[in-house]
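Entries read sequence, tokenised fold; example below:

***
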Amino acid sequence: MGLNKIILGKDLKAFFYKELDLINSQAVKPISEEILFYSAGVLENYTSSERYFETEGSKVRDKTLGQKLLESNHLRGVAKERAFQDIGETSLVLCGVFRDSLNSKLVDLSFYHDVGQNAFSGLDSFRPFEFNMHGFYQKVSENFGYITDLLFTVSKELLETKNQDVLNIKIKAS
């Protein structure tokens, strides 16, 4: 994993996919390529810092995902679908890439994990067939913990020197 070169935006999704696939291919129970591809796209989208915040008037603040999930019950149609996707994807990145920063929050990792799982389950009712797969977002919901472990592992690998102790995913014995 050489970090000596600049990665252009159009290659970022492919870069993330390659890194995710490298770890996933060593797992005892790897997830599907479709979920890896989706996860790489989420990482690419969340390289922009404004995805983590919301504006209310002239104020910028952290997204309050639990509250947004509750409020989404009052939304309809496309607005509800967008809310589920935003909540699910933000939770995925928070629980994966920024897991350590959640230690200083009032609520813990399991809260955001549950919020993300619920959001993806809700999204599945709007998009039951995605990436040529029935129940795609339900599968994302069911594998939320594994996906976040995968994102965490890859982010640690990219931010630090290779340290086999950070792997939270069981690797096949060679």
